[in-house]
Design goal:
Chains A, B, C, D: This is 6-phospho-3-hexuloisomerase. Chains A, B, C, D: Belongs to the SIS family. PHI subfamily. Chains A, B, C, D: One of its GO terms (molecular function) is isomerase activity. 4 copies of one chain form a homotetramer. Chain A is α/β, with parallel strands linked by helices. Chain A has one domain: Glucose-6-phosphate isomerase like protein, domain 1 (Rossmann fold). Chains in contact: A-B, A-C, A-D, B-C, B-D, C-D. At the A-D interface, helix 1, helix 3, helix 7 and helix 8 of A face helix 1, helix 3, helix 7 and helix 8 of D.
Chain lengths: 198, 198, 198, 198
């Protein structure tokens, strides 16, 4: 399982590269939101595999006690000024997500972007940006460069794989941090966990 | 479009066959729930095409101001004593839905069943049953009989089609009735309608 | 169940209003596709409740032996010149669906539009248009007019309900017609029906 | 981002703990399937967050040229003797997945299980088992033990997080290995990637 090891090592390095200040801003925003806007909504948005990573995070937000929703599911309420939207796009250029982010701006909700490129259309629109390294399917060259720096060789992680896996683990780190801050035990999460499971 | 006409006629007859008392019980339960349990949840459950009909209904419940959820989506919270589950199954025997309904019983939530067979495993478990005619994929003979009575000839609506289409229109009738009772205008619904659309 | 009856009556009238030539073109295209492009793909696209109606149709296409897919699900392959896309939008202006339809044009796939307005952005782009009456959330005035003609009074079917329910029954009519033409029995459909059910 | 680092380190250790023989069997089965059963289907099954990990894998299988499907989506065909089902469950006891696996046995399709417990109901049923370490929500004690061994301290990854993240990276390793064996370039994957994106 050489590649699995390589990807895991990439995620490990990503953990050291993510800017503490950016992650801190995101956790603070979510902690503050939990304490002061209990009726508020968190809408998670992502396309393709980034969307799946977003769903996994939204599920944990629900377990933590948030009213979380996922763009593209059946049940998506309107979001308003005091709500939060979290958009995930490695390139920061995924058309659907940029369009959705524009609608978030219009609704005056807060926008958190998770992307490899702070200087992308998505990144520039966001209130809070967390830069998660990884290649993206639109940026072959930059990506090649990123890989050189990170010492990972071609072609073992196609398309957005590295970004997606790093983001998944990053967001699970956010969940752990929120558990500590909100004093939630695993048992608390279990209680909110769906009891009618599919 | 002979078949479209036939199916629509079936739905029309179904509208006259559904027991007013059963429909009334369902609307009363939902009206009362809206007025007295604003934080409560409504979980809609169905498999296959019945699940799609359920989703369309859950979407309108959201527009009406309910906290509605759909079994099988990413975001499904635990449901409790004061919550409502609505299970849709033509045969009343769909394994997944019967299992889910048992979990609803255990959670002591209220259970509304929409089925062609009140005397099915699902029907017998429910607090409120609404019988919607239609054939189901498990009951060839009974179905044949139902069709004879309704004057519809083979084989123009395969599998559960008639039940599904009748249920879709029935539930849209429930939505209209709830709009009147809860004094909601179309504009009210539009305001809750997702503003970040996919 | 006065409203259920009204909606069913609307669907019945819709069945008489749909142009036979348009429905014929759609069935012919699908029949020809089945006979001559067995490896080809059919992609069904719709937003919100129209998307759910599309899914119910895609499921039956699968049962009939087509390789059908639904925009927005996990598994959506690229579509090519010989493939078919079916777009459902009452107003013919739903942004997401118009954008998707433009991509269909670029991929040179065939485009079938189901909409209330042949002269909408979606309608004008399509190779085949089927006009299904119904009001839409974007066209209050035209809608009012449509209702006057159809003799249905306010406000019993909010937002796109009438279009969605009429389209659902229309597409089930198409399924029935395809069963006859492709000589498929209900048993044939049952055999392709998922055997590992959720 | 201490926790992100810890989870990544866990995944790294997991990469060294996964039995090469088991991973090899899984890759061989998928390679052989690709070469000799081109029309065959691969059905991926998982509940909750394990289901999301499964979807991400199914998407890549599609990009690699497989006919992959995901249990719970709209489009799920029947599977037969020469098809493959891949079931993901940390505990190997998730009711829905065990039930689905039984149906797979009945359909005589091949069953690959990804679980932390080879000696679980799911593990015992499977033709091929890949043991991926991680704690699961059902096995507090064993989990505690597993963590002690792996040197990871409480409580930083709630419920099935470690299993899910390790499995995600493991499956992306499988994708990389299949790319090499099937001589697929990233460009090949891009070509099958959805061109009508949501």
């Amino acid at each position: 399982m050489k590649t699995m090891y390589d990807i895991a090592e990439f995620v490990l390095r990503a953990a050291t590269l993510i800017k503490a200040r950016q992650a801190e801003e995101m956790v603070n925003a979510l902690e503050d939101f939990y304490r002061n806007h209990r009726g508020g909504k968190v809408l998670v948005m992502g396309a393709g595999r980034s969307g799946l990573v977003g769903r996994a995070f939204a599920m944990r937000l629900l377990h933590l006690g948030y009213n979380s929703y996922v763009l593209g599911e059946t049940i998506v309420p309107a979001i308003r000024e005091n709500d939060i939207a979290i958009a995930i796009s490695g390139s920061g250029r995924t058309k659907l997500i940029v369009t959705a982010a524009e609608a978030v701006r219009e609704a005056k909700s807060r926008l958190i972007a998770i992307t490899s490129y702070a200087d992308s259309p998505l990144g520039r629109m966001a209130d809070i940006v967390v830069e998660v390294p990884g290649r993206t399917k639109y940026s072959k060259n930059e990506d090649y460069f990123a890989r050189q720096i990170l010492g990972i060789n071609e072609p073992l992680a196609p398309l957005g794989t590295l970004f997606e896996d790093a983001t998944q683990v990053f967001l699970d780190g956010i969940v752990a941090e929120l558990m500590v801050r909100l004093k939630k035990t695993e048992e608390d999460l279990r209680l909110v966990h769906a009891n009618i499971e599919l």
